[in-house]
Amino acid sequence: MIADIDELESLLSEPTPGVIATLDRLDGDIVILGAGGKMGPTLARMAKRASELAGIRRRVIGVSRFTAAEEERKLQEHGVETIRCNLLDEQAVQRLPDAPNVVFMTGMKFGSTGQEALTWAMNAHVPSIVCKKYRRSRIVAFSTGNVYGLFPVASGGSRENDPPRPVGEYAMSCLGRERMFEHFSRVLRIPMTVIRLNYACELRYGVLVDLAQRVWRGESIDLAMGHFNIIWQGDANAMALQAFDLVASPPAIMNVTGPELLRVREVANRFGEIMSKAPTFVGHEGTTALLSNAGRTLERFGRPCIDAEQLLRWVADWIMRDGPTLNKPTHFESREGKF
Ligand SMILES: NC(=O)c1ccc[n+]([C@@H]2O[C@H](COP(=O)([O-])OP(=O)(O)OC[C@H]3O[C@@H](n4cnc5c(N)ncnc54)[C@H](OP(=O)(O)O)[C@@H]3O)[C@@H](O)[C@H]2O)c1
User: Fold this and answer.
1) Quick check: CB of 39 below 6 Å from ligand 1?
2) Predicted pLDDT at 113
3) 291 with 153: CB under 8 angstroms?
4) pLDDT tens digit string along 194-223?
5) Nearest CA to ligand 1 atom 39
6) Model confidence band, residue 140 (pLDDT cutoffs 50, 70, 90)
7) Residue 271 near residue 316 (C-beta atoms within 8 A)
8) Atom 21 (ligand 1) nearest CA
9) Any ligand 1 atom below 6 A from CB of 200
10) Residue 86 beta carbon below 6 angstroms from any ligand 1 atom
11) What values do phi and psi take at 41, rounded to 5?
12) Which single residue of 22, 45, 76, 337 has CA 20 to 30 Å from 16?
């Protein structure tokens, strides 16, 4: 079991042999935009650790507003340089250091309902500011599986060449983000990989945490979004860094999630077993869900180091011990795409 946040963050930033090999081959520094969020701190730390293990001297620079000042301090402690910058400020972005490698991680999801214009500015306008600044770099850009929309569960999930059918303004703006990256990749010949992720999960947030908390607190669970995929955030970080191996113009598209197609009812019952609680359910399982098929990525980079059962046990143990959480529910159950 994972004892505390230090151990958790150390595991989440542990580079795989594949990441070490990629960062050994890669030339130059890495700038990570949006480094202060849920994933950025451990991704930045992984990039630093992998570079050191490969014997490569490089700057890893985390850029964010760092509204969580604690994350900035921790990054610095681990050898990651930090710069405070609001990416909506075009002139401030122009002043950022150049680097041949950029990871783009900013986005706006929660609070998007009611702030639609800001959501579009963050998700679809910021990419154009970034592409103009980093026109000579390689870019790995995070997107989301939400761009696919709901898909029949029986199909096993959306694949990279399925046409996007986003539901709701958040998902539409994320498709806008992808299209802006694609446009600049084509026009300026920027090599890129676009990562369609759903859902990263660790012990402080994620779909498993949402479900575990409901079972533990005796709250009922809505079955309408009856299926989902997840991936241990450490594996998602690793695949994102390895995505530098795939960059292309127009952008390579890469689904990132685990191999398991999980059923809400079964996962809740499994939590119930471990926690000695009987979950209660409302609603009926839909025949469609937000699901991605990451078969192509897993063939290329291998299966995640941590599987769903392992992660589920860790989460159950953490919640039962009242471990700290981010208090950021995923709202994965939303079928209307409102966040
Ligand atoms: N986590 C998941 O399960 C998941 C699933 C699907 C897709 N994704 C995508 O993957 C990416 C990374 O995920 P995440 O969970 O780490 O996202 P996140 O928690 O939202 O982190 C992104 C960070 O970007 C920073 N940011 C926001 N606006 C900014 C601005 N104007 N200027 C500079 N920095 C700004 C914020 O940190 P500061 O407060 O420090 O500025 C924010 O915390 C996101 O694009 C997300 O859409 C994540």
Assistant:
1) yes
2) 87
3) yes
4) 999 999 999 999 999 999 999 999 999 999
5) 67
6) very high
7) yes
8) 37
9) yes
10) yes
11) -60, -45
12) 76
Pocket of ligand 1 contains residue 34 by CB under 6 Å: yes
Q: Is the CB of 65 under 6 A from ligand 1?
A: yes
> What is the 8-class DSSP label of residue 164?
P
**254 touches 297 (CB < 8 A):** yes
Which residue's alpha carbon is at the smallest distance from atom 46 of ligand 1?
107
- Bridge partners, 158 (sequence order): 292
pLDDT digits (tens, 9 = 90+) for 237-257: 999 999 999 999 999 999 999
* Most ligand 1 atoms within 8 A of CB, residue of 33, 88, 119, 142 to mutate: 142
CA–CA gap between residue 117 and residue 113 (Å, rounded): 10
Nearest to 140 by CA among 64, 247, 41, 59: 247
Q: Tell me the two tokens of residue 78.
A: 């681990």
Is the CB–ligand 1 distance for residue 47 below 6 Å? no
> How far, in Å, CA of 200 to CA of 235, rounded?
9
Tokens for 154? 């029986």
String of DSSP letters for 221-280: EE-SS-EE--EEHHHHHHHHHHGGGT-BSSPEEEEE--S--EEHHHHHHHHHHHHT----
Question: 297: Cβ–Cβ under 8 A, 6 or more apart, which residues?
Answer: 239, 254, 255, 256
3-state SS assignment for residue 195: strand
Determine the distance separating the centroid of ligand 1 and the alpha carbon of 72, expressed in angstroms: 14
Mean pLDDT confidence for 37-44:
98
